[in-house]
Amino acid sequence: MKKIIVPVDFSKQSEYALKTAASLALKHNAGILVVHMLELNNSLNPTPEVVNQEYTVFLIKAAEKRLKEFLDKPYLKGINVTPIIKHYKVFSELNEIAEMHDADLVVMGSHGSDGLKEIFVGSNAEKVVRHSLIPVLVVKNDYKDFKIDRLVFASNFKLKGMKAFEKAKAFAELVSAELDLVYINTPYSDFLSTEDAVTRINKFLAKANLVDQVEIYNDYSVEMGILNYSKANAADAIALWTHGRKGLAHFFSGSIGEDVTNRAKIPVITFRIG
């Protein structure tokens, strides 16, 4: 791992992300690119151009000062940290930063869910996940010494999911994690007998040229199956994939990814495949 991107807005959630990134950077000898995006909109300031330029410079200087203070953390010592200020909140620009600096990962803080309200949908985290061409790790809690030893990847093990599996496998290798493969069997959607599930899984593994073991886990829904299996097996993170499309259908199989990301107590890593 070479570089980790951390978008920050000075919230406690972005500090959670920064601390998580610091743990990973120390373990894998990586640098951190801390990105703060200003929301500058000239239409809100109908003043002469010279005044607007001065006002913009003032905001940028203020942001640079605040970012410098925000990065004065003991857990960042010994890590190569590069602060980056962007004038506009355009999340697609993270791909340009990733390409320019050869970054491997985005670590993003998120509130998660609050009762019945799905905060992840329409949030900054959701926008980053949708736009990013590199993996995005979404965290909601404070981790003092974060590491990924066990990464859960749930799949229906249809052959069209091979690309998602390959990305999850590559990430697991990048962070030296065990990839825990699971098929969630439910009584309502795409139910398979044990024999049929094993046949499908073996066909997938043969195509992937693997001899890995896949757990068949029964639950009432795919979402709850992923969460319950991850908890029962002490997973450090959950791997999901996204098509990068807008709306509720951009995650695999409808809104499953959004539900898992909102409800998960552990970090979720997402991979864009389209």
TrEMBL record:
Residues 1-140, 160-271 form the UspA domain. Signal peptide: none annotated. Pfam families: Usp. Belongs to the universal stress protein A family. This is Nucleotide-binding universal stress protein, UspA family.
